[in-house]
Automatic annotation (TrEMBL):
This is Uncharacterized protein. It comes from Prauserella shujinwangii.
């Protein structure tokens, strides 16, 4: 498979060069010749990647703070994806536009678009130009931008779990969760039928830890931030 990829380690510093892998989202594994978006490292320090941009409509639910959401978006930019952010707090996402830079005419790069929480016409995704839509609409998001075509991924940013988010949560191909308080962990256990030991683990994650949850998947990982990412996003943290 061929895919247009640029090496962001020389400019944005958000990821090394890798190609988009159309493997299933639940195939989180050490990076290889064909990887995906680098999420972090495993318990042994091995890099872990996720095929978040693939040849199928894809849904990702992210339960946690803005730091993780913005890092995922930055790393999608690093592999040449269009990034559209629909949000009620556009100032919080301005760092993405700043990181994308400007065109020769001085206008902002079209690769990043910050939009309101209302339906808009989206760029047409393709293998050479996948599309990541970030829906930052609170704990009970309306499904304004459901992925409908290959190479279109929608990320739903949930600041916390809400019982009325069950439809979005259960439709997700991948869930990324940061540390949850006890009540939230109990709700997660009900939504995804987690055993007690997994529920307890969600309450003890450190600020730089995330659990990746999918079909037959439970994978704790540690977030890793490059020096350039720290300049853009600040240090790794659980909150916004």
């Amino acid at each position: 498979m061929s895919s247009r990829v640029r090496d962001a380690s020389q400019d944005a510093g958000v990821a090394p060069e890798f190609v988009v892998d159309p493997a299933l989202l639940d195939a989180i594994s050490p990076s290889g010749d064909r990887g995906g978006i680098v999420l972090g490292s495993g318990l042994q320090g091995e890099p872990l990647t996720v095929s978040a941009l693939r040849s199928a409509p894809t849904r990702i639910v992210l339960v946690g703070g803005l730091y993780l959401a913005r890092q995922v978006a930055l790393r999608a930019m690093a592999v040449g994806a269009w990034v559209v952010v629909a949000t009620g707090r556009p100032a919080a996402w301005q760092v993405l536009s700043n990181a994308a830079g400007t065109q020769p005419n001085g206008r902002p790069s079209p690769l990043v678009q910050i939009r309101r929480l209302s339906p808009v016409e989206l760029p047409r995704p393709s293998e050479d130009a996948p599309l990541l839509v970030v829906h930052d609409g609170g704990p009970t998001p309306q499904d304004l931008f459901p992925p409908r075509s290959p190479w279109h991924t929608t990320v739903y940013v949930l600041p916390y779990l809400h019982p009325q988010a069950d439809a979005v949560a259960n439709a997700a191909d991948l869930v990324l969760m940061q540390r949850l308080p006890a009540g939230q962990a109990e709700l997660a256990a009900r939504l995804w039928r987690l055993p007690p030991q997994m529920m307890r683990q969600l309450t003890t994650l450190k600020d730089d830890q995330v659990v990746a949850l999918g079909r037959n998947l439970w994978r704790p990982l540690r977030l890793v931030t490059t020096s350039k990412e720290q300049q853009i996003l600040g240090p790794v943290r659980r909150g916004d």
